[in-house]
Design a protein that fits this description.
alpha+beta; 351 residues; 10 strands; single chain; two-stranded antiparallel ribbon; globular; 2 domains; Creatine Kinase, Chain A, domain 2
């Protein structure tokens, strides 16, 4: 199956390109809609037969809509554990979908900017993901998919609460707008804790790079709206957009402070040490890669000459993950062999 997955996906990941607005701070933007189909129980309460019928109808609608150009569909029960982990790392399925044992599927557009999970927590999870700070474009792409499928499938909707979802926190718009932001300078200046604590008062939350329940790697935080009820989609999107703009300004100020005479030498030393480790290490865990690539990314944004570019770091952030290395090798790698393969891969990309 690994060979089949390799034929599905290009080596270069479009949504991880160093493009869009503020690519040195905002890695990517994602908009997700949770939708359920009227007349079917939520997946967690549905029989296997009901899940299968729901999946059949959803796949027919997706195909008829022509909204997912040259898409690929995979039934989760046909995939190996390695392939599921690969799709999680590629941001096309959640950990919950990977662990499910019913009739689950994923549909992915060929450019990987649009995907749909079927029978996760809700019947449909429609996702658009784009590089950089791209809330407007991402919302437009996801909204077109949501509206197009809504013409073919009867969404569960209540006049009082809006779109009905399995989890009450998603009820209302069923929409999450999230940006993956890189905040290393705020962390190094000791300001990050207070900044993140203030987010809850603004209706947003910060999570790890894989979403809810995951830890932070490489100073990357997934910042999204924490509720979906009480306002319209445009208002929630504007709230996230406003918070991200503020985070960008805070991070820029912190980076400027790290380049003041009293801190500049220490900052440059940390960045160049990180660059040297990336170029020379023979064994490297993903955590170590993320730690050092974070410093290198910050150094590039500060204008330091490191002999690499932001786009290369972005692509490696996804490609150096454990399942990606195993798929590249064509077999399941042990943790020790993965660390060796990762170091080899990083050295080859940096030249």
């Amino acid at each position: 199956m690994a060979a089949r997955l390799l034929s599905w996906f290009r080596d270069r990941i479009n949504w991880a390109a160093a493009e869009g607005d503020w690519p040195d701070i905002v890695f990517s933007t994602r908009v997700r809609f949770a939708r359920n189909i009227h007349g079917f129980p939520f997946p967690a309460r549905a029989s296997r037969q009901a899940q299968s019928e729901l999946r059949r109808r959803a796949l027919e609608a997706i195909k008829a809509s022509r909204l997912f150009p040259r898409s690929k569909e995979a039934a989760l029960e046909t995939l190996s554990p390695l392939e599921k982990r690969f799709l999680v790392e590629r941001r096309h399925i959640s950990h919950n979908l990977a662990a499910a044992t019913g009739a689950q599927s994923v549909v992915i557009a060929s450019d990987e900017t649009l995907s749909a999970m079927i029978n996760e927590e809700d019947h449909l999870r429609l996702q658009a993901i784009l590089p950089g700070f791209s809330v407007d474009k991402c919302l437009e792409l996801a909204s077109a998919a949501e509206a197009g499928l809504g013409e073919l499938l009867p969404y569960a909707y209540g006049s009082e609460f809006g779109f009905l979802t399995a989890c009450p926190t998603n009820t209302g718009t069923g929409m999450r707008v999230s940006c993956m932001v890189h905040l290393p300078a705020l962390g190094r200046t000791g300001r990050l804790g207070a900044v993140l604590e203030s987010l809850s008062h603004l209706g947003v939350t910060a999570r790890g790079m894989y979403g809810e329940g995951t830890y932070v790697l490489g100073d990357l935080y997934q910042v999204s709206n924490s509720v979906c009820l009480g306002r319209g989609e445009a208002d929630f999107a504007e709230s996230v957009r406003r918070v991200i703009r503020n985070l960008i300004n805070f991070e820029i100020k912190a980076r400027e402070d790290l380049l003041r005479p009293s801190l500049r030498l220490k900052t440059e030393d940390a960045v160049h040490r990180a660059r040297a480790i990336l170029s020379c290490a023979r064994l490297m865990s993903y955590e170590e890669f993320m730690q050092n690539s974070s410093l290198a990314r910050m150094g590039l944004a500060m204008g330091l000459r490191l002999g690499l570019d932001l786009d290369t770091l972005n692509q490696m952030t996804i490609q150096a993950q454990p399942a990606h290395l195993s798929v590249r090798a064509g077999r399941e790698l042990s943790p020790e062999r993965r660390d060796e393969a990762r170091a080899e891969f990083v050295r080859s990309r940096l030249g």
